Amino acid sequence: MKHQRITIMLLRHHNTFRSQTVVHNKQKVTQWTFNIKEPSLRRKTVLASYQKNIIRHILSFLPLKCAVKTSILSRQWINMWKPLWIYTTIIDFDEEFTKNLKKTHYVQAIHQLLQLHTLDKVKKFRMFFCSDDRYSSDLIEWIEFVKVKGVGELVLDLSGNVRHFDSTDGDDIRWGMNKFRMPNSLFSCLSLSSLDLTRCILEPLHDFKGFKALRSVALYGVTINGVQLGEIICRSPLLEDLTMSYCESLKPVKIDHLQLKILTLESCFDVEEMKISTPNL
Q: Pairing state of beta strands 6-13 and 200-201?
């Protein structure tokens, strides 16, 4: 006895499914139909909510710049990144964020993003930019943001040059060689627990009251004299870790601190004399 070949076809017409069984090209041996109801409005809302949560979860693993770019994928993804940004406690404009951007576009993007942020408190603020005099007012405004948001960890790298931005910007590569003078508002950021600065000038005010919560300081290519450095150290009672590399204008340096546990000095060629009194080193 030969085996019969049986084919089952499932055909859809709108919301109705129809099944046909064909045996040796003889149609309609058996047939049945059933309907599928459209999901209710409430169900659609719940499903849409799940989809948004999944998308936002995916975006949470991406750098900010990549998350923003996902808006072009579909209408469903437009501005999906904004809630993540508005409520983030870690703001990170790292070197990757600057790639292929003109400086003017970079500055505009930073201002727009900071205006969107609504949380009162920010744990960490990191920025990679440059020491161009044309953008000093922008840097001052961003540091004021750090003060207002009560930032705990500040990383400000101003070593960027034209190679980190769009090469069509038309600037000489030397434009990034200037040093930005830190504004007075920095020395009013009393919430700082960690301070990491690259290529700038530090001149604390005479009435500088100190960083009462500061535990870690890292200075790279910073211009600061020994007296000013001593003021920052002695007025930061919780300071435990001090790192300095390629810093300028130090001359005589006196480091006197009871809590300091780690001290690193590298290639600070201007140091003429150093006195260290740190019993916990």
A: unpaired
